[in-house]
Amino acid sequence: MAYAVRRMKMEKMVSEMRQELTERIIPFWKGLHDDAGGYIGWVDYDLTRRPEAEKGCILNSRILWLFSEAYLALKDPSLLAEAKHAYEMLLRMIDEKNGGVYWSVHADAAVADSTKHTYNQGFAIYALSAYYRASGDKDALELASSLFRLVEEKCFDGEGYLEAFTVDWKPAGNDKLSENGVEAGRTMNTLLHVLEGYTGLYEAGRDPKVKERLRWIMKLWADKVYNSELRRQEVFFDLSYHTLIDLTSFGHDIETSWLADHTLEVLGDKALTERLRPMLLSLAENTLETAYTKGNGFSNECEKGKVDATRVWWVQGEALVGFLNAWEHTGEQRYLDAAKSQWEYIKAKVIDPREGSEWFWSVREDGTPIEKPIVEPWKCPYHNGRMCLEVIRRLGTE
Fold first, then answer.
1. Helical H runs in 169-236?
2. What pLDDT is stored for residue 230 in this prediction?
3. Whose CA is closest to 390, among 86, 125, 72?
4. Domains, the chain, with CATH or none
């Protein structure tokens, strides 16, 4: 009887996730389709659309990824059409002369910010790989592969990945992925999303060179990024991997706990999995103990012992998937309970109830919304859309 009740509750969550994806998230982003190319890049908190706004390449890549993966899951031809529209826009964001993806373009696709950031390249690889799997377009896979080769040539220095470059690939300041009063030579965030992009590329093309680089990155993560004493990832580093600040990014820790675990599954390396999975599960456990509050969501970060309890949209979604992943590996009820609690919290506080909207950027600890844009270069459908797709994939019976 207990199993039957639990299964019914899980089926309810899957059904609600499918509804959230198909009736709110996807229609909202379809509604930002811009016939001039890509998708409108800015929507104010009051839902005013800004078609004249710059179009961030990270945002466009994430939109391309969502529509591609949603098509693979739902088989709705309109999703593949939207993915193609995003793909065509991404092609206009490629620097044909010097190679690589720009940081942003104007509404008419003229270059706005020509910075070449390793983070950007990783997301483009991730999106293009998903689009290839959805469409079968071999040009998309070849472009993803060429970006992989470019990152290895221009961004890799033998010890890891550098961050930011000028249009012609000269080193530049990393202000775009540095926060909290430091400017980092290397970041956990960029390494994570290079890993994510390369994992998608390996799934799409099974290139042994990509596989070998994934194994190298995972070992680097274990040796340099993971802090076993504090059960967290360090966030900002100098070029020698000395940490620059006492900071725990709860959102990135729980995201890594399942994203890197997926990489282990894709690689199928037993020895590597035996070494790293306990570390990844420790990230989930630590955030459960320090960042999660039953019925009241998941905190953002902790700097020098001071917790930022802001409930950020992407962190809430990643926490749900991370806890679900930990439950699948351990069978511990506390993780499943936390995942279900996260969903109830998201429904109650993070989903914007206004018609024609999507999710709030963030809410305060008391649940009141913070008036930040609904869409801007970082506010995208990738985290919440992926959360829905992961729940459907892991728990769905259809």
1. 188-205, 208-220
2. 98
3. 72
4. 2-395 (1.50.10.10)
